[in-house]
């Protein structure tokens, strides 16, 4: 579609170049309207700049660039793909484009699945109430320009409506095939009251990946989300999870990140109905030019809700970890139980962890705790293990897994949790050489 | 079994000499005790033998069954048959006691080219040995030493020793922090492990532990050297007269 030039705010020129490089879709109907509104939001804020408070620790330059930087495609060899052992409905995207041949039939009892592209033609669609809606709500108090960009420009993605208990998890598999791919995916998920659904996400997706997942969780519904972000080291990704939780509902989200030049995972969770529970956790391990940013905003807007943020990072050889996490408790949200922990284990002196934990509370009868630490591995404990015959590298792996355990514990499915621990052990074994003694 | 010759050790970070020529020879099946005042170097000796960082050996050797220990990594020393029961057993949050024990046993077996123990066999063995040390299932499940009382920690050390079946056991002030009953329990655990092929070096401040674990030889250590060696009666002499007489005598 024809784009009006962005008003020059000092950020405009960059945004115009960024938009021109994308193939901004032109759609009529409700989807076209949602995209135009998102574009207006984006043009009002512009792209983020390093001087923006919310981007202080993560340089957005490579995400702002009109063209994605080249990223080599990782060859996993004979390593079993993530979630392969799980009985699931598989939906495959290659460099951000739906691949029907590699995907299962988009049909399963208890849920409706549809591609974003095919929904564009309808006049009325359930996704109208979700697409761009949760994203728009999340633009305040902090703008999230890449999410608005995503809503405006994403041509592919998946729409899932769960009306009952989904028989199997839905697995979104992101294949990275071209070393210069720039993928934009937008998913919308709606769980009707009492529905239950597990979404698995895996793979690096593209050289550069911009993703939004909006999740409307109805009263008493349960949404599980487990993500493994792929082994490709040179990729860059900015992802967003927006969820709004109805009364008595549950959201549990866990992300494992083992590589990536740049990863920014934003999560905005709104506990909108009473007695809802939102748990969001992440385990990240990075070696060398690895930059990993978890930016989380949890809003308690109703009474008796519980939220947990558990983020653990293991960093070595100059890797950087960032955590920006906030709990906002609105004035009516009495009996809130909020918990936030962010911790980094620095395996050498070159790595760094930058954390900004925040609490903002307007209710007077709440329980909120937060903690943030970074430190080295306990040498005394390492020696203790070695003195019992455990080789130093194994001892270190044992202690790293113990450190990450609190985050991995948020994965309820034991088989998947075991698989995640196995992948972490593999990573630790491959990366033991440097930094070990 | 263990032969230490002219061992000199200083701290790595500062110019402080701790051991100034320790000589010690322990035969198979023997139990030796080292006593000595605070700061005499007893604990340093145990740490240096086990391979802890932070110490520099400037001279001397320590051989376990003819193999030089001081050149090995700590895990290799363990696999070679050395075990140190820590004065302060270390807490390892997040690592289950059972996982820890099994990892250690299997790592040592692997290092020696032996088969790993099956999960079922291991469980049976641990339960049996834990029972005699009055270590309950709950303690086995908890993270290593986390929230354990002083006595529980020391019993857990002896359980590790029983599971790992070392040839040379060093007990570093295993009696510290133990009440009479716990000391009896720990001593019984140690005594049950005494055999013709296994030797012990018991480091202690007090004679009372030696009432339970009867030594063959007693050494007195002071200022980084063994200044006197004798039979069990030497421990009684220290108990009655303190270290002053012996120190004066040696000058």
Q: How would you describe this structure to a colleague?
A:
The complex is a heterodimer of chains A (437) and B (251). Chain A is α/β, with parallel strands linked by helices and 437 residues long. Chain A has one domain. Chain A has helices spanning 12-21, 29-45, 61-64, 116-119, 133-137, 145-153, 379-387, 392-408, 414-430, and strands at residues 89-94, 97-98, 107-108, 111-115, 158-162, 170-175, 182-191, 196-202, 208-217, 222-228, 236-245, 250-257, 262-271, 277-287, 291-300, 306-316, 320-329, 337-346, 352-361, 367-375. Chain A is globular and about 70 Å long. In chain A, 55% of the residues are buried. Chain B has a domain at 2-93 and 168-250: P-loop containing nucleotide triphosphate hydrolases (Rossmann fold, 3-Layer(aba) Sandwich), CATH 3.40.50.300. Helices cover 39% and strands 28% of the residues of chain B. Chain B has helices at residues 42-50, 74-79, 97-111, 119-132, 137-141, 150-164, 180-193, 208-212, 233-241, 244-250; strands at 2-11, 17-26, 31-35, 55-64, 67-68, 82-85, 92-96, 143-144, 168-172, 199-204, 217-222, 225-230. In chain B, the strands form three sheets. In chain B, strands 6-9-10-3-11-12 form a six-stranded mixed beta sheet, with helices on both faces. A four-stranded antiparallel beta sheet of chain B has the order 2-1-4-5. In chain B, strands 7-8 form a two-stranded antiparallel sheet. The model of chain B has no long low-confidence stretch (mean pLDDT 90). The A-B interface holds A 378-381, 383-392, 394-395, 398-399, 401-403, 405-406 and B 50-53, 73-75, 77-79, 83-84, 86, 89-95, 99-100, 103-105, 107-108, 111, 143, 160, 164.
